[in-house]
Write a structure and sequence with these properties.
This protein is of the alpha/beta class. The protein is built from ten helices and 22 strands. Helix 1 (13-23) runs parallel beside helix 8. Bound molecules: flavin-adenine dinucleotide (FAD).
Length: 428
């Protein structure tokens, strides 16, 4: 009998728990450990930040759904991993032994890398907001409601080293849509400030025609932009950024005024994971082989935002590669197969497809991209815009949350619709 512990119950960890349960005989125990007792559907946070969703609509309690499927749940953070003894220490000092550990802890939000940035509650300086966590989005909505009484300039964007750009574009367009509906858009100059070398880079070197399409979208929506921007500091009402040229030389210093700012931070690995000797790269991201297994500890696997992936290309201001929902689930499927093989005394063979598939809402319309594989040249490389994406994004939210409530990992819809797009979870 083996004990498999999944650390992190997010977009990756929850489906992994269900899939593992479906795949493994019941003699094997599965325990999920998560720092809080609820699941949040992170992709909906930009909607929460403008009041289009409530916190309740995009979160759910974890314990009832997992225990129904005979998966144990502990709502505490892991504070220490003894990878040699295969033992976790949890908040409060309890310990938990494992035979296999699946690390799915998502990112530590590195707000501290830019003075003044990020919510105070997450170790930031309190001058910019975030949509990375539902609590951040709730706090942003509270300030947005005040802002609406006396509007002014808005800054949205991504800090040096950021890897997740889609939500920054999404939030810009969602704000634009919301302000237009309120007939306040004329009072709000908007600037998009990003570490990407060009609009539509997305940490992926662009996808299809993403550059022209997103530039055109920004022009149509009166959003100004600053690319190759190394944001250095935030002061009350002012964001300071140095713009670099293609060779990395400073060309211009910007002081961008704002009344409301949302800047996505760079990601690092969470402390308990980053502290394990030889497990991670210098940013605390888990180093894995092609089978999602730690290069240093053979009974540790990892997937999701917490794994180390090299950037698609070197950019003047550092950018990282995004890890999107379907890619994360594909990594999880590979891990479930590989742990099952290991238990059966067989070698690991399953590899995730690591396809970047993303639906970005723009409030009234949306943009979807598919990059297969992630690094160019690609077999599938398209970026399309349309109202159908806005609707598909709503469907994705409803569908994912329903899937977690039902306790299934890959229902029929996903198998066939994603199959039609030529997207499979495993590399055949
Ligand atoms: C605002 C935003 C919007 C996004 N929108 C999309 C989108 O529309 N489509 C898409 O494909 N991708 C999107 N992404 C990218 C990606 O899908 C998400 O970041 C996703 O949440 C990552 O999943 P994950 O499982 O790796 O981490 P998370 O979902 O962040 O889950 C990590 C879990 O680990 C827990 N944890 C952390 N530390 C510990 C610890 N020490 N002990 C125990 N538990 C711990 C956390 O509490 C959390 O529950 C978005 C990302 C962001 C930030």
């Amino acid at each position: 009998m083996a004990h498999i512990v999944i650390m992190g119950a997010g977009i990756g960890g929850m489906p992994a728990a269900y899939e593992m349960r479906e795949m493994l005989p019941t003699e094997h125990r599965i325990t999920v450990v998560n720092s809080v007792d609820y699941f949040q559907f992170v992709p909906s946070n930009p909607w929460v930040a403008v009041g289009w969703r409530t916190r309740e609509a995009v979160t759910l309690p974890i314990a009832p759904y997992l225990t129904r499927k005979k998966i144990a749940f502990i709502g505490k953070a892991v504070t220490h991993i003894d990878a040699v003894a295969s033992q976790l220490t949890l908040t409060g000092g309890d310990t938990l032994d494992y035979d296999y550990l699946l690390i799915a802890t998502g990112p530590k939000l590195a707000f501290d890398e830019v003075a003044g940035a990020g919510p105070l509650a997450s170790g930031g300086g309190g001058l910019t907001h975030s949509v990375c966590h539902v609590d951040h989005a709730v706090a942003l909505f509270a300030e947005y409601e005040e802002f609406l009484k006396n509007p002014g300039p808005i800054v949205v964007g991504a800090m040096p080293g950021a890897s997740c750009f889609g939500p920054a574009y999404e939030f810009t367009m969602i704000l634009d849509t919301d302000l237009r509906r309120r007939k306040l858009r004329d009072k709000v100059p908007m600037t998009y400030v990003t570490s990407e070398p060009y609009i539509g880079h997305l940490g992926l070197g662009g996808v299809g025609d993403s550059k022209s399409m997103l530039e055109s979208e920004f022009r149509n929506r009166d959003v100004k932009w600053i690319t190759n921007a190394k944001t250095t500091e935030v002061q009350p009402g002012k964001l300071f950024a140095t713009q670099l040229d293609d060779f990395g030389k400073p060309v211009k210093d910007h002081e961008v005024p704002f009344k409301l700012a949302m800047m996505l931070p760079a990601f690092k690995g969470v402390d308990a994971v980053a502290a394990v000797p030889n497990l991670c790269n210098p940013r605390g991201m888990v180093l894995i082989d092609e089978f999602q297994r730690s290069k240093a500890y053979r009974n540790i696997y990892s997937a999701g935002v917490c794994v180390a992936i090299p950037p698609v290309e070197v950019t003047p201001v550092p950018t990282g590669t995004p890890k999107t929902g379907y890619m994360i689930e594909s990594m999880m499927t590979a891990i479930c197969h590989n742990i099952a093989s290991d238990l059966a005394g067989q070698p690991a063979t399953a590899k995730g497809t690591w396809n970047a598939v993303c639906l970005a809402d723009m409030g009234d319309t949306g943009a979807a991209f598919v990059a297969l594989p992630q690094i160019p040249p690609r077999n599938v490389n398209w970026f399309k815009k349309g109202k159908w994406v806005h609707l598909a994004k709503i469907a994705y939210e409803k569908y994912f949350i329903r899937k977690l409530k039902k306790g299934t990992s890959e229902p029929i819809y996903e198998k066939y619709v994603m199959g039609l797009l030529g997207i499979n979870r495993l590399n055949k």
